[in-house]
């Protein structure tokens, strides 16, 4: 019985190894995207930017990056994207702990879009408070 268990364990191990060796994981294409974000004509000091589509969300492939001194860079899957931008800071209003400096039309209800492909990897987003 011990020999049978050992033989079975070896067969299972070799089978699993073969499966792992033969299956190639193809990583999705991503492009190096960069650009700038301004709010009312001034570089957005800090924040975050996300490039997303419904497919990206379903596949867990949303690309995000930090914004520092108005600049960002990220690796983004190709295609038409909705752009979501936030800049969360501590609020001086005692009724709220934090506030987003970026209006909702650029995040929760974003109207910004970008088409990412081999020829479109540089983007400028000029936001307004109004």
């Amino acid at each position: 019985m011990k020999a049978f268990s050992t033989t079975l364990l070896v067969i299972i191990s070799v089978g699993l190894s073969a499966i792992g060796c033969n299956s190639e994981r193809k990583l999705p294409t991503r492009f190096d995207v960069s650009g700038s974000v301004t709010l009312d004509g001034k570089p957005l000091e800090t924040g975050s930017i996300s490039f997303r589509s419904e497919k990206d969300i379903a596949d867990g492939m949303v690309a995000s990056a930090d914004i520092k001194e108005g600049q960002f860079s990220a690796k983004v899957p190709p295609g038409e994207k909705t752009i979501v931008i936030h800049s969360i800071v501590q609020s001086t209003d005692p009724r709220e702990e934090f506030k987003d400096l970026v209006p909702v039309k650029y995040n929760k209800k974003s109207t910004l879009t970008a088409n990412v492909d081999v020829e479109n990897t540089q983007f400028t987003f000029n936001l307004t408070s109004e």
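The longest helix spans residues 2-22. The longest strand covers residues 31-39.
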